[in-house]
Design goal:
Distance between the termini: 56 Å
Number of helices: 7
CATH superfamily: TonB-dependent receptor, beta-barrel domain
CATH class: Mainly Beta
CATH architecture: Beta Barrel
Strand content: over 45%
Shape: globular
CATH topology: Maltoporin, Chain A
Radius of gyration: 26 Å
Structural class: mainly beta
Largest sheet: 22 strands, antiparallel, barrel
Length: 721
C-alpha cells in the first residue's frame, strides 16, 4: 500500500485553518441547530446529515467525535446502485467484499470484517448470517432500492452496540413514509422503473403511503422486483452466473396513541434466486434460493415535559434461510465420488433474535449539561445446517447457538459551547454451544472522549475506546476435511474473545458563507491506532504432509506422508482458528464537502495499515488506499443536476502467499450522472458507470467487476393533501 499523499493532507489542513467564518455549535444533545426558515443551506452537505450510531443520540456527522459518515437517500438515488457496494464505495475507511455470483455483501471497516467485527443493522436489527467458504465469513442481503439512508461509524463502539463492532457499525434505514410523502401530504404513490445495460437489467419499485389526521397512524408499503443478468467485464469477457432475481416487500406501521408515545412495526422480506458457478463450492455448481426476513417492534416514550425520559424499547427477529441445490460437478467429479446426486440440497438457516432497551436522561449540574444514556441488549444466534450434498458446508458452518448479552452507561457532557466529553462503560457476556462444546466469557469495556472547540468553526477531539468480540460459532466449532486438496480444519473450544484498544484523534471543520452567501464547507480528519488483542485468525497447525495431485488417486496412498512421493506432491497442513498475540491497525481518513447551491464537491481519502504484531506479516483483510471525489453542478433553477464521481483504488501487492488471495492492481473508475426533476411528480435519473470500461477486480473479490454500465430510472409520484 502507498503512503498517504502529503499534498492531499496539507491542502485539507491549510483550508481548515485559513477560512474565517464561524459555524454555530449544536444547541444540545439530540438537537441540531436548525437553519433559518428558507435558508438554502439546509442539508447542504453529506456531513450535515444526522447520525446516531456514534452515541445513540442525534447529531450531525460533522459534529461526531469520531469517524462518522452518512449516505443520504438523495445520494443513493443519484448513484442508481446495482449493489450495496456501489452505495458505500465513496465512504472513507469502508470497503466491501462480494462474490458476484451471489448478491450477498460483506463490509470491511479499517481492515476489520467477518464474524461480526462490523455490526450491520437493518432498521436496528442485527444481520449475522455467515456461511464459511472461500469468500467472506459474514454476509448480508439487502437490495439498494430498499434503502432510505446509511449511517456509518468507524472504530470500536461496542459500548453501545453489543458484542462485536470492534471495526464499526453500518446501520441501514429502509424506505419509509417520509421518503414518498411530505409532512402536509395525506396519501400518495411512488412508482419507479429502472433499466440498464451489461447485467443491470430491470428494476420495478412500487410504494404507497397513508397518513391519518394528526399522524395518529401512518402506513407504508413497498414492493420490489429486480432482474439482473450475466455481465461482461471491462475487456468484454462474460463473467458466468452473475445474474439473479430478487423479489422484496417492505411494510411499516407507526402509531402515536398519545403525545410522546410512538409504536412502530416493520416487516421486510426478500427472496433471491441465483446460480453459483463454484467459486466457493469446490467447483460444483449450485442453484440458490434464499429468503431473508427482518421484523422489528419498537416503542418510544418522549414526554415533552420530562427531560429525564427518552425511552426506546425494541425487539427484532432476522433470519436467512439459504437452500442450495446441486446442479453439476467439476471435471474431477469430486462431489459425485462422495455420492452427491443432482437435486441434493444444502440448507443453512441462521436466525437472530434480539432486543434493545435504552433511555436518555437530560439534566444540568450547574453549568454542565448532561445526556446520560443507559440500557441493555441481547443478541441470540441460532444456526442449523443440513448438508446432503458433499458434507463440506455442514462441517464448516456447524449447527450451534450463541447468546450475547450486555448493559452500558454513557454520559455526554457539554460546557460553555467549547467543551464536550463522553464517558462510557459496558459489561458483556457470551455463551456458545454446539457439538457437545460449551464456551463463555465476559468483560468490561470503557470509552473516553474529549472534544475542544477553540473557535466556533473548529473542534479537536481525542478518544480511547475498547471493544469486545466473542468468538463466532464457526470459528469455534468448525470441524471437517477440506475438499481437494484434502486437509483437516479443526475446532478450537479454547478460543478467547478479541479485545480492541483504539486510540483516535481528529478535527471537525465547519464554515458557512466561505466564497459566497449561502455556501457551506465541512471537513473531518481522523487518525486512529487500533490494537486488537487475541485476534482470531485461521493458521496452520501440526506437521506438513503431502497429498495427491488428483482427487482420483486413493487417499490412503498418501495418508501421513511427510515427504513428496510419486503422486503425493501437494503440501498441506491442518488449519484451525487460533488467537494470535496481537494485531495492529492504524490509518488516516479524510472527508470534505463543499456546497455552493449551484453545485457541490466532495473528497474522501483513507489509508489503513495492519500487521500481525508477532510475525510482522500484513493482515489479509486490510484494503488498499482509496481516494474518491464527486463534482456536481445544478441548472434550471436546480431541477437538473449533472456530475461525475471518480474513485481511485491503489494496488495491494504484499498479500501473504499462504492466504491464496491474489494481489490486485491499482485502478480508477469514472462515473457520470444526471438527475432531472421535471416537476414535483416526475423525476429521471441516469448513471453511466465505469465509462472507460476499466477491467479490474476489487481486492478480496472472487470475480472481475462489470465494465461499462448504463443505469437509468424514471420515478412518478402522486400525492394528496
Amino acid at each position: 500500500m502507498v503512503a498517504p499523499p502529503r499534498s492531499l493532507l496539507a491542502a485539507v489542513s491549510i483550508l481548515a485553518v485559513t477560512a474565517a467564518v464561524a459555524q454555530p455549535m449544536p444547541t444540545g444533545r439530540g438537537t441540531v441547530a436548525p437553519p433559518p426558515p428558507g435558508d438554502a443551506r439546509a442539508g447542504a452537505t453529506a456531513l450535515d446529515e444526522i447520525t446516531v450510531t456514534q452515541t445513540k443520540t442525534e447529531g450531525r456527522a460533522v459534529d461526531a467525535l469520531g469517524g462518522s459518515s452518512v449516505v443520504s437517500r438523495e445520494t443513493i438515488r443519484e448513484i442508481q446502485p446495482d449493489r450495496i457496494s456501489d452505495v458505500l464505495r465513496q465512504v472513507p475507511g469502508v470497503s466491501t467484499q462480494e462474490n458476484h455470483n451471489d448478491p450477498g455483501q460483506a463490509i470491511n471497516i479499517r481492515g476489520l470484517q467477518d464474524f461480526g467485527r462490523v455490526a450491520v443493522l437493518v432498521d436496528g436489527a442485527r444481520q449475522n448470517f455467515q456461511s464459511t467458504g472461500h469468500g467472506a465469513n459474514g454476509t448480508f442481503y439487502l437490495d439498494p432500492e430498499l434503502v432510505g439512508g446509511v449511517d456509518i461509524t468507524r472504530g470500536p463502539v461496542s459500548t453501545i452496540y453489543g458484542s462485536g463492532a470492534i471495526g464499526g457499525v453500518v446501520a441501514f434505514r429502509t424506505l419509509g413514509i417520509d421518503d414518498i410523502l411530505r409532512p402536509d401530504e395525506r396519501a400518495g404513490l411512488r412508482q419507479k422503473v429502472g433499466f440498464g445495460t451489461n447485467g443491470y437489467g430491470l428494476v420495478n419499485s412500487s410504494a404507497v403511503g397513508l397518513r391519518l389526521p394528526n399522524d395518529a397512524v401512518t402506513v407504508f408499503g413497498q414492493f420490489l422486483y429486480r432482474e439482473s443478468y450475466t455481465y461482461r467485464d471491462g475487456a468484454g469477457f462474460l463473467v458466468p452466473d452473475t445474474g439473479s432475481d430478487i423479489v422484496a416487500a417492505n411494510f411499516k406501521v407507526d402509531a402515536t396513541p398519545a403525545e410522546g408515545h410512538r409504536i412502530g412495526l416493520t416487516a421486510l422480506r426478500q427472496t433471491y434466486e441465483f446460480a453459483n458457478n463454484g467459486s466457493s463450492n469446490a467447483g460444483a455448481r449450485f442453484r440458490t434460493n434464499l429468503d431473508t426476513d427482518t421484523y422489528t417492534l419498537g416503542y418510544r416514550w418522549t414526554p415533552p415535559d420530562i427531560p429525564l425520559i427518552d425511552l426506546s424499547l425494541k425487539g427484532y427477529y432476522s433470519s436467512t434461510y439459504d437452500v442450495r441445490t446441486f446442479l453439476s460437478d467439476t471435471a474431477s467429479g469430486l462431489y459425485r465420488t462422495l455420492g452427491t446426486r443432482i437435486g441434493d440440497q444444502i440448507v443453512v438457516d441462521l436466525a437472530t433474535t434480539g432486543f434493545d432497551v435504552v433511555n436518555t436522561s437530560r439534566f444540568d449540574t450547574g453549568p454542565v449539561a448532561h445526556a446520560l444514556t443507559y440500557g441493555g441488549d441481547g443478541i441470540f444466534d441460532d444456526v442449523r445446517t443440513t448438508d446432503r450434498a458433499g458434507g463440506f458446508t455442514g462441517a464448516f458452518t456447524p449447527t450451534g447457538r450463541r447468546d450475547l448479552t450486555g448493559a452500558f452507561v454513557q454520559d455526554e457532557i457539554r460546557h460553555g459551547g467549547w467543551f464536550r466529553a463522553i464517558g462510557a462503560l459496558r459489561v458483556d457476556r457470551y455463551e456458545l454451544s454446539g457439538n457437545g462444546v460449551r464456551s463463555s466469557g465476559d468483560r468490561v469495556s470503557p470509552r473516553g472522549t474529549i472534544g475542544l472547540s477553540p473557535f466556533p468553526w473548529l473542534e479537536v477531539f481525542g478518544t480511547y475506546a475498547e471493544g469486545y468480540r466473542a468468538p463466532a460459532i464457526s470459528e469455534t466449532l468448525i470441524n471437517g476435511t477440506h475438499p481437494f486438496p484434502a486437509f483437516q480444519i479443526l475446532p478450537n473450544a479454547d478460543l478467547r474473545a478479541e479485545t480492541a484498544h483504539n486510540l483516535e484523534g481528529g478535527v471537525n471543520v465547519r464554515f458557512d458563507d466561505v466564497l459566497r452567501g449561502g455556501d457551506a464547507f465541512r471537513a473531518k480528519i481522523v487518525g486512529f491506532s487500533n490494537r486488537v488483542d487475541d485476534y482470531i485468525d485461521i493458521q496452520g497447525v501440526g506437521p506438513r504432509t503431502f497429498v495427491a495431485v488428483s482427487p482420483l488417486v486413493p487417499a490412503a496412498l498418501c495418508r501421513g506422508r511427510t515427504v513428496a512421493f510419486g503422486p503425493c506432491q501437494i503440501p498441506v497442513q491442518a488449519q484451525r482458528y487460533v488467537n494470535i498475540a496481537r494485531a495492529d491497525l492504524s490509518g488516516v481518513e479524510v472527508e470534505a464537502a463543499y456546497d455552493w447551491g449551484d453545485g457541490f464537491a466532495s473528497l474522501a481519502y483513507s489509508h489503513t495499515e495492519g500487521v500481525d504484531a508477532s510475525s510482522k506479516i500484513g493482515l489479509v483483510r486490510v484494503p488498499p488506499d482509496k481516494i474518491a471525489g464527486t463534482l456536481g453542478l445544478r441548472f434550471l433553477d436546480r431541477a437538473l443536476t449533472i456530475g461525475t464521481r471518480i474513485v481511485y483504488n491503489a494496488a495491494r501487492t504484499n498479500v501473504p502467499a499462504s492466504s491464496l488471495i491474489p494481489n490486485t492492481k491499482d485502478h480508477t473508475l469514472v462515473d457520470l450522472f444526471a438527475s432531472y426533476a421535471y416537476s414535483d411528480a416526475v423525476r429521471a435519473d441516469l448513471t453511466l458507470a465505469n465509462v472507460f470500461d476499466t477491467r479490474y477486480i476489487k481486492y478480496l473479490d472472487v470475480d472481475r467487476s462489470p465494465g461499462f454500465q448504463a443505469r437509468g430510472g424514471l420515478t412518478v409520484r402522486f400525492a394528496t393533501r
